[in-house]
Amino acid sequence: MARNVITYGTFDMFHVGHLRLLQRLRNLGDRLIVAVSTDEFNAAKNKKAIIPYEGRAEIVGSLKIVDQVIPEHSWDQKAADIKKYDISVFGIGDDWSGKFDHLKVHCEVVYLPRTPDVSSSALRRMARALDPEMIERLREVHAVLDQMVRNFE
Ligand code: C2G
To answer: Quick one: which of 14, 86, 117, 120 has the most CB atoms within 10 Å?
Structure first.
């Protein structure tokens, strides 16, 4: 019987932390299903991804270690997904440690160590800082501060 593994996430600005997690999860079974958070669900998570759902799903789905991508619409779909896709293992990073123990009645639940020093939120901050409009605004602020200093001299 195939051991199907499932995980859930936003996977914005796909990076090596996401990749290593998916690789470790894939090695726990024969098939890996990834539920990618929709943009609407991200709003419920108070997350604003830089990359829209379609792009995030396409990137995750392009990985040879990922057998199927489904949308994650809500917090409450996991139990139904586990039944629908005949899941043996639910896995996620240990920033969620303990949060999904209620799924243990349906399947194994594993929390895997996150990859340190990389995060989508840091990449989002960098992307925003490099945004040309932001740089223009910073230039204007700098000019005003410069003028203020000159006024005091
Ligand atoms: N991750 C990781 N190492 C990092 C960053 C992320 O192992 N440096 C893992 C997270 O622990 C998570 C997965 O990569 O298991 C996806 O991370 P996010 O996109 O931040 O997922 P999140 O927004 O936490 O969504 O219902 C569950 C939620 O949808 C999880």
So the answer is: 120
CA of 49 to the centre of ligand 1 (A): 12
Question: What's the 10 CA to ligand 1 centre distance in angstroms?
Answer: 7
Q: Which residues form the pocket of ligand 1, taking CB atoms under 6 Å from any ligand atom? A: 8-12, 17-18, 21, 37, 45, 47, 72, 92-93, 95, 114-115, 118-120
* Ligand 1 atom closest to 94 (CA): 11
pTM to 2 decimal places: 0.88
Domain architecture of the chain: domains with CATH: 4-118 (3.40.50.620)
CA dihedral 58, 64, 66, 67 (to 10 degrees): 100
Is 45 designated active site?
A: yes
User: What does the pLDDT look like over 140-150, one tens digit per residue?
Assistant: 999 999 999 99
